[in-house]
Amino acid sequence: MALRRGGAAAARAAVGSQPPEHVVRIPWALRQRLEKRRKERRPGEAAVPSGKLLLRSRRPELSQPRWQIVGRWERPRLVSAGWKHREACGDYFQLEPSQKAAPALKAPPAPQGQSFAEMGLQPALLTALQSLEVGRPTAVQRLAIPTLLRGRSALCAAETGSGKTLAYLLPLLDRLLARPEKEEEEEEKKAAAPRGLVVVPSRELAAQVGAVAAALCRPAGLRVRGLTGGGAAGGLRRQLRAPGVAVLLGTPGALRDALRRRFLTLGRLRWMVLDEADTLMDESFAAPIEEILAHAPLTAGAPGPAGPREERTQVVVVGATFPAGLSQVLGRFVDMGCFTSLATQGLHRLPPHVQQKFIRLKGQDKLPELLQLLKDHPAAGGAVIIFCNSASTVNWLGYILDDHKIKHLRLQGQMSAVARAGIFASFQKGDVSVLVCTDLASRGLDTSSVQLVVNYDFPDTLQDYLHRVGRVGRVGSKTPGAVVSFVTHRWDVDLVRKIETAARKRTGLPGMDCSVNEHPPKAD
After folding, report:
1. What 3-state class would DSSP assign to 123?
2. pTM (2 decimals)?
3. Does any domain span residue 157?
């Protein structure tokens, strides 16, 4: 041993006093695992099993095949896990469509396979449906129409673009036709007294729903009227001047002003619809909505009609998402225990037929990426909607598109009523194929011609994302379309991680369920 130590010291001195190299012995099982991992990372070899993909990543090893199922409590490897680091810029992943048609058009099971005629709708409404070229009912229509025909108040929740407008208009108009009433001319000279009221958050949605309601009411002889603000008191009076208005559609501010000026009375109201409930329950609409509810003859008790002199109003709350405080607001005016909850299976889930791409970008790279997307989008590829989070971004982006000779329209809430009039109608007609807008255009509007949605600014909430992605792949759309989202800020990444996790686990988005079944607290 002494000779060995001395020999080692002499050898170390001979090579410049360098320390000896240590030999590390790796266990055989660990060597096998490391060798397997190296083989998986070799170029040219498949990183994921072959087959159709549910999620396609820029890094193939993070892609997920469609057949793979992630457990409820399992933590999947996320593409967006490291996206808060600046070096992640340029990374992306894409959710691939898993079916061709919208879930709302899925063939129903045998017990629910009834047609509109089998539901017992009035012949005049069936004639109107033929003129609108509406065939078989969608999932939400099969669910809601029989319940609403029985006079039940309901919370109706369904995914965007599933046909909710017809789901509530058809049964409620049928009830008006089943119980015709004589018009009181003397009373109507003082104030309009509709029997049906639809409250919507925007003038664009009021015009759209009004057009559908007018088409349904025309064969039945019912008069429909719209009421929107933005003008003087004389404008409200002129909008309500038509005699015998059976159905009124209006925005909260205009309805409140008409009630205060006594141009409108709700004493004869048979039913009321609150469409796009999550927007109507926003702080900006809270006071007008409560005032409208206070004027309507709402009483607690059984949900069905009690007799010919009954003054109770049937209330239907509609939306793709519901706010958490909905039951507290409604509970001050109606008995929430009498409401029926109607929800489709696709509620709060990512649309499985729409391609969705998420790109991690620096803020300075968003504009070049957008211009390239518009350049690559074919002229015959359908309309494009570009969403921004603020009116100032809409205006700034519009100036940039003008500089690049890209014809477009702009729509945001800070525009005057005169400036907004007709903008969305022109977009729907196809006069201009590019619309730059805020979330004003993400709620309820019919965008069946849109095939590409670009989230230039990533939405602030998961609810906003669902509404934006619902602008494509709607009932009546020729193709499912695609959505491209630019992910820039660290707080955007938090939402993207939740979306990616829900997509990998095939579950609904988290935090979307509202407490509609909870009874409101009793007053002291």
Report:
1. helix
2. 0.83
3. yes
